[in-house]
């Protein structure tokens, strides 16, 4: 008698994996690369995991896959013109699939997503910017309608 295959799928495993990788990064465990960022003289270093960076960023994937065996594995990457807070937020996003930033930083997050070729972050920023724009347009429409109704009430005899 032949048994039918069944699918064993965990809904919590991806979230658990991300949470565990984030904890390992925050504790500095098993990190195999340090990313140094500098912007206008402010510099910081971030320990990370090559596999996580390569899986979430085509930029890092290209950097790590193009390492020359003669040089040995790359243990550090330098990013110029990247603000420390923005890269910290980028790392939080790629390790947790979420990050909280001020509204005025969304455009900068989109720019770092494009620079580092992180499609998930780009799409997330685009969606948020779209929602923000729709909200502003709705507010303008409501304001315009309230102005029109005020004008109509003052013009009426």
TrEMBL record:
PROSITE patterns named in the record: BTB (PS50097)
Pfam families in alphabetical order: BTB
Domain BTB: 31-103
A GO CC annotation given for this chain: nucleus
SUPFAM superfamilies, per database record: POZ domain
Keywords: DNA-binding, Metal-binding, Nucleus, Repeat, Transcription, Transcription regulation, Zinc, Zinc-finger
GO function term, MF aspect, one: RNA polymerase II cis-regulatory region sequence-specific DNA binding
InterPro entries assigned: BTB/POZ_dom (IPR000210), SKP1/BTB/POZ_sf (IPR011333), ZnFinger_BTB_dom_contain (IPR050457)
Localization (cell): Nucleus
PANTHER family given in the database record: AGAP004733-PA (PTHR46105), ZINC FINGER AND BTB DOMAIN-CONTAINING PROTEIN 44 ISOFORM X1 (PTHR46105:SF5)
Name of protein: GZF1 protein
Originating organism: Cinclus mexicanus (American dipper)
Gene: Gzf1_0
């Amino acid at each position: 008698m032949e048994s039918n295959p069944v699918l064993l799928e965990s809904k919590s495993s991806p979230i658990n994996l991300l949470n565990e990788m984030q904890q390992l990064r925050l504790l500095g465990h098993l990190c195999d690369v340090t990313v140094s960022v500098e912007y206008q003289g402010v510099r910081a270093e971030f320990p990370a995991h090559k596999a996580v960076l390569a899986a979430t960023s085509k930029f890092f994937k290209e950097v790590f896959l193009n390492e020359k065996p003669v040089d040995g594995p790359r243990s550090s990457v330098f990013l110029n013109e990247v603000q420390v807070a923005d890269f910290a937020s980028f790392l939080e996003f790629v390790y947790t699939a979420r990050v909280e930033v001020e509204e005025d930083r969304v455009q900068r997050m989109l720019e770092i997503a494009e620079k580092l070729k992180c499609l998930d972050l780009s799409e997330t920023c685009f969606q948020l910017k779209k929602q923000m724009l729709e909200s502003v347009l709705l507010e303008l429409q409501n304001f315009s309608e309230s102005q029109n109704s005020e004008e109509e009430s003052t013009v009426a005899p």
